């Protein structure tokens, strides 16, 4: 198996969506002064690589803590916008995806959708209860139109409209052309 990290590193002062809280990461305990190290994190729920719950854009929609864990993982595929897509699995786009794809996506009922999604597409998908993953890094490293396992678990934030995730694609060694067992990215 080959593990590919699709997550952007969380860094102090990293770019965020205009108007969202700044990402602040501070060291508050050090080995020298306290004999351990601890950091303080302050950020919005949509910082870095993250999952959006329906409640993000739809009042009364499900929050991350109310969704079963199996909604955040499963068989997935990177697809071309104009290509054929399988139904019922996670779908990812390595290029920008807009609202014009919504009808086709609604028909396929994917477990989740990820990539550079336009706000109207994201809103429409969440309205249908389809989770979205954004700010993924390195989707172009994944083979197109080949299945892989995806994992993108949120923090269990009570009432959370979204959450940063550690997004990981796991490729079968037979799909990558060799018996590699390594982690890439990060």
From TrEMBL:
Q: One Pfam match, by short name?
A: Cyclase
- Source organism superkingdom: Bacteria
Q: Which GO terms describe its molecular function?
A: arylformamidase activity
Query: Which Gene3D superfamilies does the UniProt entry name for this protein?
Result: Putative cyclase
A GO BP annotation: L-tryptophan catabolic process to kynurenine
Among PANTHER family, the record links this protein to: CYCLASE-LIKE PROTEIN 2
What is the protein name given in its UniProt record? Cyclase family protein
**Organism ancestry:** Bacteria, Bacillati, Bacillota, Bacilli, Bacillales
């Amino acid at each position: 198996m080959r593990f590919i990290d699709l997550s952007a590193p969380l860094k102090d002062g990293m770019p965020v969506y205009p108007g969202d809280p700044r990402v602040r990461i501070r060291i508050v305990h050090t080995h020298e002064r306290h004999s351990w190290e601890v950091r303080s994190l302050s950020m919005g729920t949509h910082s870095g690589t993250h999952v959006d719950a329906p409640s993000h854009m739809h009042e009364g929609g499900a929050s991350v803590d109310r969704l079963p864990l199996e909604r955040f993982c499963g068989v997935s595929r990177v697809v071309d916008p104009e290509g054929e897509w399988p139904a019922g699995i996670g779908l990812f786009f390595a290029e920008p995806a807009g609202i014009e794809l919504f009808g086709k996506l609604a028909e396929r009922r994917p477990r989740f959708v990820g990539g550079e999604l336009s706000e109207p597409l994201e809103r429409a998908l969440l309205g249908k209860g389809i989770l979205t993953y954004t700010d993924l890094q390195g989707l172009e490293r994944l083979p197109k139109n080949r299945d892989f396992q995806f994992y993108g678990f949120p923090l269990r934030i009570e009432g959370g409209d979204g959450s940063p995730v550690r997004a990981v694609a796991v490729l079968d060694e037979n799909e990558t052309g060799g018996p590699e067992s390594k982690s890439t990215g990060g």
